[in-house]
Amino acid sequence: MNKNLFFVMLSLLTVIPAQAQWTNWDTQRAVNGVFGAINNSIESAERKKAMEIHAQEKAQYEQSFKDAMYEAKGFEQEEKWEEALDKYEEAAKLNCKYDYSDQKQISRKITGLYAKAGREDDGASVLNNAKTILPDYSQYRYVRENPIYVNKKGARTKILRVACSDTETRLEMELESSRANVGMSVKGNSYIKGNKGGKLALVSVENITVAPAQTTIPWPGQKLRFALIFPPLPDNAKEFDFIQPSSTWQYKDIRCQ
């Protein structure tokens, strides 16, 4: 802490009470102001020091990032997918911390290499996205791509498809991770509700877990696609709501036909 600032503040505390009509409340306010200024000075110095350390580390590890990216591209050209994947992930760890390059491009490389390396089943998240898209939707009465809906909570998760049959209502959704190692799940008390019907509870899920378990999205920019299965809506239902209590997943007036 700056010693001069401390002595100035201390002198103010000893001089000010001598002024006329100075009250205990005035003294307490002055004390709070002095220590508030001292704390702000300390926090500012700590932030500055942390920024300096981060800048030094960024410069220190920049060549390691470049080397990992260079080796990754070399392995990729040689079709050594496993080695390329390891190097891209090494680069991604540094990039997430120090922001050397566009992480979305690196994440797309990593996602593609999991398939090329034959590691689609290593995890339950981004590696199995293709499995949430059915090869045949002919069994459903109504299938609507990119349905219209209202979400006033600002949820980042999109509804990509609604499929309604005599046996189930299927919601296919997608979200993009904004940071590394994001854990996602759906609450077991989630439900859909027709305009004139009661609540229909969640039956099953695909490519996502039910809380408290978590499905991890490893890298920023990667997308998780999943499906939520509910009981069938009435034949004449044209719109319905999807609600996950106490969350931003509050989708209203989802068009299903």
Characterization of the model:
The protein is α+β, with helices and mostly antiparallel strands. Helices cover 39% and strands 21% of the residues. It has helices at 3-15, 24-77, 81-98, 103-116; strands at 142-145, 158-164, 169-176, 182-184, 191-194, 199-201, 204-206, 215-217, 223-230, 239-243, 250-255. The strands form three sheets. Strands 1-2-3-9-7 form a five-stranded antiparallel beta sheet, with no helix packed on it. α1 packs antiparallel against α2, α2 (24-77) runs antiparallel to α3 and α3 packs antiparallel against α4. The longest helix is centred in the N-terminal third of the chain and has 54 residues, at 24-77. It starts with a helix and ends with a strand. The mean pLDDT is 86.
Average pLDDT figure: 86
Largest sheet: 5 strands, antiparallel
What fraction strand? 15-25%
> Helical proportion?
25-40%
- By DSSP, the count of extended strands is 11
**H-E string:** HHHHEEEEEEEEEEE
Low-confidence stretches: none
Structural class comes to alpha+beta
What is the straight-line distance between the termini?
67 Å
Question: Counting H and I runs of at least 4 residues, what is the number of helices?
Answer: 4
Using the alpha-carbon principal axes, give the shape.
Answer: flat
Question: In what order do the strands lie side by side in the largest sheet?
Answer: 1-2-3-9-7
Radius of gyration: 28 Å
